[in-house]
Amino acid sequence: MDRSRSFPPPACRAIVFDLDGTLADTASDITAALNLTLSELDLPPHSEDIVRGMVGNGLAKLLDRALARHDSILEEEKQDAALERLFSHYAANPCERSTLYPGVQETLSALHNAGLACGVFTNKHEAIGFDVLEGLGIAALVRTLCGANDRFL
User: Fold this and answer.
1) What digits encode the pLDDT tens for the residues 93-102?
2) What pTM was estimated for this model as a whole?
3) Hey, what's the torsion of the CAs at 65, 131, 112, 105, to 10 degrees?
4) Residue 29 annotated as catalytic
5) 3-state SS, residue 16
6) How far apart are CA 111 and CA 97, in angstroms?
7) Are 44 and 21 contained in the same domain?
8) Sign of the C-alpha dihedral, residues 69, 74, 76, 79?
9) For residue 67, which phi and psi values (nearest 5 degrees)?
């Protein structure tokens, strides 16, 4: 290990944050979209607490986990259609109930004012990620967003 270098580097120019669960609590909007999809499949809704435990690795994985909790297995065509509906429901209202965690607005503002570029990395589709940043009122404080290329991730 080269001890002549300091860590972290003295000239930090950017900071990258995760979105869901780090900057914002988005579970309510994800739960609403999932439960709309489940109702279209004549399945009962999941509570937000249950959905929080299922979130991670994208919408396709969320749908798989939600169906598994109901012991429901769909044919591939019906599963694909349900995933498309889940994506549509979430894209229609990605930031209706979502909230920033305490101190996030102030922290991003301070970093922005100090000249540090802030980025957000998310597994949400980029268009949804941008909508969430806008809805939370922090889009102007984020220089770049890197989201999923595949809309179901």
Assistant:
1) 999 999 999 9
2) 0.87
3) -70
4) no
5) strand
6) 26
7) no
8) negative
9) -65, -40
* Shared domain check, 80 and 115: no
CA 36 → CA 41, 63, 90, 111, distances in Å? 9, 12, 9, 38
Picking from 92, 117, 132, the residue at the C-terminal end of a domain is 92
Q: Note down the domain range covering 134.
A: 14-25+98-148
pLDDT in tens, 135-147: 999 999 999 999 9
Per the rule left: phi > 0, alpha: psi between -120 and 50, beta: everything else, 6 is beta
Write down the residue that tokens 């580097």 correspond to. 9
Which of 18, 29, 49, 64 is labelled catalytic?
A: 18
Structure token pair of residue 124 = 């949400």
